[in-house]
Amino acid sequence: MTISIDTLSAFVEVAKHLSVSSAANALGIPKSAVSKRVASLEGSVNTTLFSRSTRKIALTNAGDIYLDFAQRTVAQALLAQENMQDLLADTGGALSGKIRLTAPVSWGQQVLAKYLPAFVAQHRGLEIELQLSDRMMDLAYERFDLALRWSVAPLHGLASEPIAYVDWIYVASQAYLAQAGIPAQPNDLVHHSCMCYWQENADDAWRMQKVRHNKTLPLEELAVRVISRFHANNPETVTHAAIAGCGIALLPSYACTEALKRKKLVRVLRGWTPLTKFGVQITAVATPECMRIVRIKTLVSYLRLQMGEAIS
User: Fold this and answer.
1) Among 17, 78, 228, 290, which residue's beta carbon has the most beta carbons within 10 A?
2) Each residue of 223-237: b (16+ CB within 10 Å) or e?
3) pTM for this predicted structure
4) pLDDT digits (tens, 9 = 90+) for 107-152
């Protein structure tokens, strides 16, 4: 069963406005055409999608369920069409157009924000629209060209490109360590108040790997169950708590670079590398078509180059 994008678009507009007339105006087609497309769709799926009366129209339960699929399908089709137009228009010369991208809030504020202004200045025909969010965006549905995300398992149907490493470290204030002692080995953490910036259960296990100077030695990993009296979904908040002496914090290094320079925090357990659910990379993610667009490729290459160590 093949259902056209035009048919799905008619259904989406009627569901949006709860009016065939308003949907027809939005689509720029006759009211009769909208009614015909909706009726055709209901026949194709063999389900009533709208309940109708002389005064109003409303989605049925089936229609409400089907709406999410229809919206995503239409959004993906429109994005693919726009991407193809951009690919056909990429004939050289100065970069132009808009790049809509999303990135994690903290990393975007503290790291990405340092590099984007120079890129915009270099390419005066470009427009950047950045939305910082820790929510996993649906790129097609929410019309984003590019997402910069913590490393995760590859997502089906999306292209990815690692662009930056993120170091994770253990830190604490000197005042806290003077009072509670300096952990000499991972198991010492059980005697400390520990903090991390993602929300987990109060009793959590910190996983870590021993730093290997001799690569012929086998990997050594362990997990230590720690007790935390402080959780936050923002690394700056945890950094401030660590400076205030609340305990040992597990943080991305970019969140506490200045505090380390000023000796407000010091590193502990340097011989161990934290293993977090976020991984150690920020990765650029886009649809395969979008990743081939010159302005997107240029931005990804620029960020990868500017953010330091080459990624193999």
Assistant:
1) 290
2) ebebebebbbeebbb
3) 0.67
4) 999 999 999 999 999 998 889 999 999 888 888 778 889 999 987 6
Token representation of residue 179: 């009072």
The DSSP bridge pattern shows strands 97-103 and 146-150 to be parallel
Structure tokens at 167: 């170091």
